[in-house]
Amino acid sequence: MSVPATATGVTHDAAPPPPRTRRRLSPWVLIAAVPGALLVLAILETITDANDLSSSGTIAATLVATTPIMLAGLGGLWSERAGVVNIGLEGMMILGTYGAGYFGYHHGAWAGVAGAIGMGVVGGLLHAVATVIFGVDHIISGVAINIIALGAVQYLASLTFVGLPGGGSTQSPKIPDVPTLTIGPLSDKLADVEKDDVFFVSQLASLLRALVTNLSSLVIISMLLLVVTWFVLWRTSFGLRLRSCGESPAAAESLGVHVLRYKFVAVLISGGLAGLAGGVLAMVASSNYRDGQTGGRGYIGLAAMIFGNWRPGGLLMGSGLFGYTETLGLRQGGTSVHALLLALAVLALALAVLQVRQGARVAAVVIAGVGVLLFVVYLVLDEVPSEFTGMTPYVITLLVLAFASQRLRMPAADGQVYRKGSAG
Amino acid sequence: MTKLLLAVSAPVLALVAAFAITSLVLAAAGDPVMDVWSQILSWPERRNLANIIDNATVLYLSGIAVAIGFRMNLFNIGVDGQYRVAAFTAAVVAGEAWLPGYLNTALAIVCAMAVGAVWAGIAGVLRATRGVSEVISTIMLNAIATAVVAYLLRKVAVRAEGSNAIGTKKIQESSQIPNIGIGDGPGQEVYGFVVIAVLVGFAYWFVLNKTRFGFDLRATGRSTTAAVASGIRITRMTVAAMLISGAVAGLVGLPILFGESFQYGSTFQSGLGFAGIAIALLGRNHPIGVAVGALLFAFLDEQSNPLQILVGVSPDIVAITQGVIVLTVVISYEIVRRYGVRLEQQAVARALTHDRAQREEVPA
Amino acid sequence: MAEGAQAEAATGSVTVRLRGIGKRFPGVIANDDINIDVRRGTIHAIVGENGAGKSTLMKILYGVQPPDSGTIEINDQQVTLHSPADAIKAGVGMVFQHFMLADNLTVLENVVLGAERLHGIGGEARAEIQRISDSYGLGIDPDRLVEELGVGARQRVEILKVLYRGAQIVILDEPTAVLVPQEVDELFGNLQELKREGLSVIFISHKLDEVLSVADEITVIRRGTTVRTVTPHEVTARQLAELMVGSELPSPSTETSTVTDELLLSVQGLGLPAPEGRPLLQDITFDIHRGEVLGIAGVEGNGQAELVETIMGMRTGATGTIRLQDRDLSPLSTRERREGGIGYIPEDRHRHGLLLDAPLWENRILGHQTREPNVRGPLIDKGAARADTERIISEYDVRTPGPDVLARALSGGNQQKLIVGREMSGDPVLLIAAHPTRGVDVGAQAAIWDHIKNARRQGLAVLLISADLDELIGLSDRIEVILRGRLVGSFDPSQVTPEQLGSAMTGAGPEVAA
Amino acid sequence: GDDSDSGSDSGGGSAGGGDETTSASSDIKVGMAYDVGGRGDQSFNDSAAAGLDKAKDEFGFDADESEATDGEAESAREERLVTFAEAGYDPIIAVGFAYAESVGKVAAQYPDTHFAIIDDSSLADTPNVASLVFAEEQGSFLVGAAAALKSEAGHIGFVGGVETPLIQKFQAGYEAGAKEVNPDITIDVTYLSQPPDFSGFGDPAKGKTAAEGMYQNGADIVYHAAGGSGGGVFEAAADAGAKAIGVDSDQYNTADPSVQDVIMTSMLKNVDVAVYNYLSEVNDGNFPTGVTTYDLKVDGVGYSTSGGQIDDIVDKLDAYKQQIIDGDITVPTEPAS
Ligand SMILES: Nc1ncnc2c1ncn2[C@@H]1O[C@H](COP(=O)(O)OP(=O)(O)OP(=O)(O)O)[C@@H](O)[C@H]1O
Ligand SMILES: Nc1ncnc2c1ncn2[C@@H]1O[C@H](COP(=O)(O)OP(=O)(O)OP(=O)(O)O)[C@@H](O)[C@H]1O
Ligand SMILES: [Mg+2]
Ligand SMILES: [Mg+2]
């Protein structure tokens, strides 16, 4: 029987002719997205009784919740751009949380960061050896790494953390904090503006305030890494070669690119980023290693990357959407999510109109139906029950993917095992 | 003959490698290597054997559910959510006892399969009509399943006096599936559901290898484009494959439900879907292979359980072994496969040169 | 011209000297004691049967695979090529048989990849590409995505890649297989240009007349060994073919017409709208009768694939009517259409014709999943399918040890014969054959032509799509030319020349009313 | 792991265990089966371990331990108990209500072995099982009252780890206590996950986000019953300059110094006391059976005063405590809504 054939990502089964235009988000869309989103939130806060949708607390927490997912997705981006599917992100992230806990506790905050990255690289190394050198199916290797990482970390924790103050077999002692950035006077000024409740202006102020108050240096570094990734992959020859390994490794090899070497490096970097994701989770989002802490965020990162069409900007939007809705659910879930229902309903109805204009009647009816349903739910309920607020991010991700027309495109050779000498 | 030898040598090689790596880890950590292995590799007692078979039954169903998707290049990460909604549904239906005796059991099983199928079908339809990757959608649906089941469980739950666990109504005795004794002592019996699992395995093999539908499914998995050209409707196959995968996923929790817990509650075994992925990969989607994988995982789990008590080593070590086995197995299979392909090409080449030699002779 | 070339060749110094090259693959000797001299400023052709070892030799010269024995000298320096990077450094450039382009990257990115040191990856590189494109008349826009380009343009991008690296020795492996005559002429024009600049060109082709017209020297390879090196004026195509295979050069020739009055396939006003831009097909109308072969000529990418896929029911959203034996096909699925008697030889056998990792007998079932002898009711009848595969293997001369071998293990020609055999099974009334002999050697080609002709004699209707104009002219009873999704001309094959067809295909020639 | 060193050498010879200890010695072997997390979880398993350690020191017991893994099969729990029973451990203590089924079955199989189970009283009638349960709602009532007394904003919060009936008991008591002091008080409630997803007990990031939301929404004191996620609640409190209430053990003593000051008090659930009491009875030769409820009356639950932040209201709290003991106040075990 065949080795299990596997695929992740989006296929074009549904629509055979791939769209011919270039599907690149213009930077203007990204730049306009922030004020646009703020405006929507301002409107929502005016007409519903939700008031936590755009508070600086929500935005700050969103940043923290988004960062590990974004970093995991960034790890996925590196490896998949080089043609290696990385379902082992979760495991590498787990290794990262341990690395942060162990090295952070013993040698200080920055050693923790390095430890997280280093442990992630170890996971990446395993994946690279298995997939790039031995040609193992990428999914199998990833699944194995997830199992091994979880077992290894639990085993290591019971060896290394038991008996330390505040440590145990399931958690590390507290890890020292990395520095945070606060611009005090500005923060206070902005707090005043935020409180004034001026339409849109307060929202803008709370956004800015979140950025100048207690912003962790790791969050800043992570966001920089996103930009660096974009630059390296799309603006340097190293990046071009790396991407060519994911698009057409045979072509790359025929031009003298050492395909396996690039794939190997990409998977190592991927592991390092996923490890850092674990590190941020352990050091910024909380302050120690904790068994089971990742809670599937590696998978979410992978989903955010696919959502973002294997591009940094899209990834940021995907992970941001997830982090934001998760944060809302955990804070004043009932009212905030209730308000979101209204936004979703309006969005769905608008989309339905768009579909009608494009002549897709069935889709329009379905989407309009969902929109009306959401609207009815909004009217009937005063608050969303607590059991459901927790699932908001998952539902929204699913809805957005289902409704946003599918124009995703994964690297052409993603997930394929490449052997040296296959050119020609 | 050589083929058989190769096929056997691959997994043996893999196990040896996995054991070696685990031993290294143990030795590095300063744990007693030999004690650990003598516990894990000791012949299990009757009741442990029963536990191994029981757990393997559950893992097997999960592995088959995942394998069905894999056969069509669909990565159903969502077995976890599917079996959860399904087991809950079965527990509620069976607990309500609308029908008498085994009719009630049958109804519950059918409902479980239907619900599992629907839950997976959502991902199938989204993929077929909207092109949403089933990888993402099933991850999301797992989380949604958790929330929905938690909500509904609280609505229908009954709580035994003095207990902190909540669960659905107990299934009456006449609807429980009797266990099969493999000895006389306590605990020496296995789930009656094991028979159903074997049937599922057989059906999986039969449908996939012997029917037109199975051919279509495998063809789609091997090449979507060739499948389309041959007249297979991919969207329909996608939905069908997800429905079937989900229906089998719906069975995953049922051996436990009808053979042991008789209710669905907050302590119901979780994470079975993810174990199923590893087992399907280990068994290379083959009905027998998956069974071997399930037995192996169940064996390791069972034998490592008393490690902490008897040897003083954390049983987490076995998770490392399991993961390593998944890797070493594929690596050794890959090596064997390459070797096999080479053998085959040699045969082709031999036939080719033979032909040519003959052709040369004619004009000459 | 041939004489001039000859004179140059005699004076040109040897830039590539291959001596005693040998290469073995498991069970196959691909190259064995190959000796070739390529001179500066010449075009050196290499010809040989499928599997003779041409591509392998070129991959060795380009550093993709190491030779097992023998030496390579470039400009009198002995070199060891560990990778294409080494070859590029030594001044060798190669255009592969199958394009080596990343579809989702731009032309610029494809060209500069691996050679970023030369001009970076930005504006300077763009200017350089533009310069090369202009000076050789390649007409390439560096910022387009490769997937938007047609075959001819892709070919030129491949050549540009080689030139960009300043190669002195250019290898072209079957560059003309997918080009129309005008494009071939353009290509040859480009090659002459290169030659004048003092470059050496190594050129592989199965089309012997092309080889004779463009090459200065020709080396024939048979079963991995160099048989002889000749100059074009020494030999005829026939003699070359005999050198290659030891048999005569076959050519398709229409015998007495077997066209009947019985209408079989009727296509009326067929259209296929595109999601954006120009429709893929527009107002296509034609009839095919029993015993008739209708040839479709066209530059690749002008709607042939879409036309075939629409008739096969693989595309949705088509307008107009398609009737097969007076039965409306539009509500029918692909499977129902196949059951209705359509045989289908797809253009890309790896993508649409085969399950490469399945045994031959399963490939026999593919596309015939609902029909005898493969199935009984809902069940697969493995025994009968195997037996019928054996029949195809012997009737169609598929070279394989048996029906249980994976399709991947067969060479392209043998894969194609299996597909032809399969599609002829089950008594089709209509055969849709897209490039049935592409990349297939002369022997296998003749066999496939014979099968098509025999079936036609027994009343089969054939829709033949081919880039090989000789094949079209030789087999068809009528030829329609397709351009930008429309049928723009109808020709009688006994009257038309490849050049006339070529100009109609490119829209240059006078249109003939259909 | 090295946590069970004491046990690993005893595995070989149970008889020899007695000679080496000079102080108290005993031929009793205790088997301890923890819930997920095990010894060192800084939470209720740890508390049980503390009780065991104390008894071991004092009475010279031999003891071995084993812990559950996440999402394990019912048979795994059962097998753990059987392994102990087969190896001659008696008594066997099961920590956590998840063991209820298993203890029921195994106790029937080994009628001569004695079992204890914590947090479950469904086996009250089984002759060889002792059920050790706690009135978490009573302890929570007192910290709820403390929160209401200390809150300046009239706005407090509760973060639950996983929404199970057990954790809802904490919530119910807390709300009742707070309302007793101030009927108009606002109480925000958030659970981090829903069963069977038990990640809410181990996700400090979520704990932090939830608590942060409450503080920014105006709450000034947050009580957590969220196991390992509680660390995040303390962090949020420290960042907000507000207060938090710990759970199970006196978390003022175990928390990191950087967040020590925010822990106003902790709700004590003295699992250690229960385990120790049980074992000391065993040492005396009695094997208790039936249900023992550890409530305010026996100081099985309570509140801590380390750090001295609630010294000023101890009187009031003790008054409530007395009222509960006297039965003047009945604390609900399920949340109001
Ligand atoms: N990587 C490989 N592994 C094994 N065998 C190979 C490999 N590449 C080529 N061969 C064998 O070497 C022989 C020569 O192949 P090659 O591709 O050089 O032929 P060719 O002359 O280019 O044929 P064509 O005209 O069809 O392109 C083939 O018969 C094939 O069996
Ligand atoms: N990379 C490879 N690895 C293993 N075997 C190969 C490889 N490439 C080619 N072969 C073998 O070489 C043989 C012929 O391949 P080749 O591609 O040269 O055939 P072909 O007739 O040129 O087909 P096509 O026209 O499709 O290129 C086959 O038996 C195939 O198994
Ligand atoms: Mg070839
Ligand atoms: Mg070739």
UniProtKB/TrEMBL annotation, chain A:
Which GO cellular component terms are attached? Answer: plasma membrane
Question: Which Gene Ontology molecular-function terms are recorded?
Answer: transmembrane transporter activity
Q: Quote the subcellular location field of this record.
A: Cell membrane
> Transmembrane region positions?
25-44, 56-78, 84-103, 110-133, 139-164, 211-233, 264-286, 336-354, 361-381, 387-404
Keyword entries, A-Z: Cell membrane, Membrane, Transmembrane, Transmembrane helix
Organism's domain of life?
Bacteria
Question: Is Zinc-finger set as a keyword in this record?
Answer: no
The way this protein sits in the membrane is described as: Multi-pass membrane protein
Q: Which intervals of the chain are annotated as region Disordered?
A: 1-21
Q: Which Pfam families match?
A: BPD_transp_2
The reply to whether Transmembrane helix figures as a keyword in the UniProt entry is yes
Q: What is this protein called?
A: ABC transporter permease
Organism equals Nocardioides anomalus
UniProtKB/TrEMBL annotation, chain B:
Keyword set for this entry? Cell membrane, Membrane, Signal, Transmembrane, Transmembrane helix
Membrane-related topology note: Multi-pass membrane protein
User: Is Transmembrane helix there in the keyword field?
Assistant: yes
- The yes or no answer to whether the keyword Nucleotide-binding is present is no
Q: What InterPro entries does the database record attribute to this sequence?
A: ABC_transp_permease (IPR001851)
Origin superkingdom: Bacteria
Give the residue range of the signal peptide.
1-27
| Coiled-coil positions | none
Give the matching CDD domains.
TM_PBP1_transp_TpRbsC_like
* Any one GO molecular function term: transmembrane transporter activity
> Localized where?
Cell membrane
Q: Which GO terms describe its cellular component?
A: plasma membrane
Residue stretches spanning the membrane: 51-70, 105-126, 135-153, 190-208, 239-258, 317-336
Q: Would you tell me the protein name for this molecule?
A: ABC transporter permease
TrEMBL record, chain C:
Localization per record = Cell membrane
Record's GO cellular component terms: plasma membrane
Q: Chief location of this protein?
A: membrane
Keyword terms of this UniProt record: ATP-binding, Cell membrane, Membrane, Nucleotide-binding, Repeat, Translocase, Transport
* Coiled-coil spans in chain: none
Say if the entry is tagged with keyword Ribosomal protein.
no
> What residue stretch is flagged as signal peptide?
none
Q: Which molecular-function annotations from GO does this UniProt entry contain? A: ATP binding; ATP hydrolysis activity
Instruction: Tell me where the transmembrane regions lie.
Output: none
**Lipid bilayer topology:** Peripheral membrane protein
Check the record and name the Pfam families matching this protein: ABC_tran
Answer yes or no on keyword Transport.
yes
Source domain of life is: Bacteria
Q: Residues in domain ABC transporter? A: 16-248, 265-509
| Name the UniProt record assigns to this protein | ABC transporter ATP-binding protein
InterPro entries according to UniProt: AAA+_ATPase, ABC_carbohydrate_import_ATPase, ABC_transporter-like_ATP-bd, ABC_transporter-like_CS, P-loop_NTPase
